[in-house]
Design a protein that fits this description.
Oligomer: single chain
Order of helices and strands: HHHHH
Number of helices: 5
Radius of gyration: 21 Å
Shape: flat
Distance between the termini: 56 Å
């Protein structure tokens, strides 16, 4: 047990930094307009400032609460990045459905309690959802199956 909740302090600080960066980009690159005639930068700047305020609030509340030091697992980001790489490598030669299925299988190895049956069910469900959303709903020209042999 440590005397501060460093997870919330760090997470809130990163959220505040991301919000400030988004607001600064919107202020520098887009016209703000006025309240009655909003420009294209008004909403991104307001959301960036709001995100920064939420981050500061989370970070400040972490100073007044004790917490555990976060457990660092090095395999988790490796499996998540491997999942993204597997999708990128497989989507063109094999199609959307096999790429989503394999990416889901690889990503579930990052979980502490790996259960193969739930992993396969999740892969099938996400593959079906990707097909319905991207191919049926949005009518993208990604082939669902494209076997290279």
């Amino acid at each position: 047990m440590v005397d501060r909740d460093f997870r919330d302090i760090l997470g809130g600080g990163l959220l505040a930094a991301l919000g400030l960066a988004a607001a600064a980009y919107a202020f520098m690159h887009y016209n703000m307009g006025t309240i009655t005639r909003m420009g294209p930068g008004m909403i991104p700047a307001a959301l960036g400032v709001l995100m920064a305020l939420f981050g500061v609030t989370i970070s400040i509340s972490g100073f007044f609460r004790s917490g555990r030091f976060p457990e660092v697992r090095t395999l988790t980001p490796i499996f998540i990045l491997g999942s993204i790489a597997a999708f990128a490598v497989l989507v063109r030669p094999f199609g959307l459905i096999p790429a989503v299925f394999v990416a889901t299988i690889v990503a579930t190895f990052a979980e502490l309690n790996f259960r193969p049956l739930l992993c396969v069910i999740l892969g099938l469900a996400l593959s079906l959802m990707a097909y319905v959303i991207f191919i049926v709903g949005l009518r993208l020209t990604i082939p669902p199956f494209a076997w290279p042999f």
